[in-house]
Design brief:
Length: 204
Amino acid sequence: MRRNSAAGLVPAAVGICIWLLPNTAGAHIVNATQGGFGSGFTHPLTGADHVLAMFAVGLWGAQMGGRPVWTLPVTFPLIMVAGGLAGMLGFELPAVEIGIALSIVAFGSVIALAWRPAELVALVLISVFAVCHGYAHGVELPHAADPADYAIGFVLATGMIHLCGIGVGLALNKPVGGRLARALGGLIGISGLYFLVPSIVAIR
């Protein structure tokens, strides 16, 4: 009965994630005429790099099991807010785009390897990259008509993407010994190279 339920979650979760996939990849610019909750909520969904990283955090948490199922997805947006604040205050964070691309490669790789470190190690890893993702949003926040509502919107959208990753991870963890989840992680990691290479070339 549980296997049937898990199997039923797969198409539903995949359908939700397909709906979330953006039409435009890597969009990190908010026009001055945009702002508020709606823009903040949709902005993380308009960058495939953000979507993949946030999805992978949920997927990794589900793969690890136990407390990380919720501690990883909760910690990531909280640290994102700190990174966003740094961006709003004008702090300089070099090579942010490289950090964002590396997060996709790193998260995909740990899932592919089914790496289950101590919870604290996993939290430190995702926190480092969460700063990069938050900073990218924070630099744009002053241009929003309502920065507070904008921030709330993108945090909620981030949480939704995490939940999507958790759902897919829980559905794929047990079938064929978790190899489906690992394969998906591998695809995510490879996808990260698509963003990493242009980011490195751009700074040269």
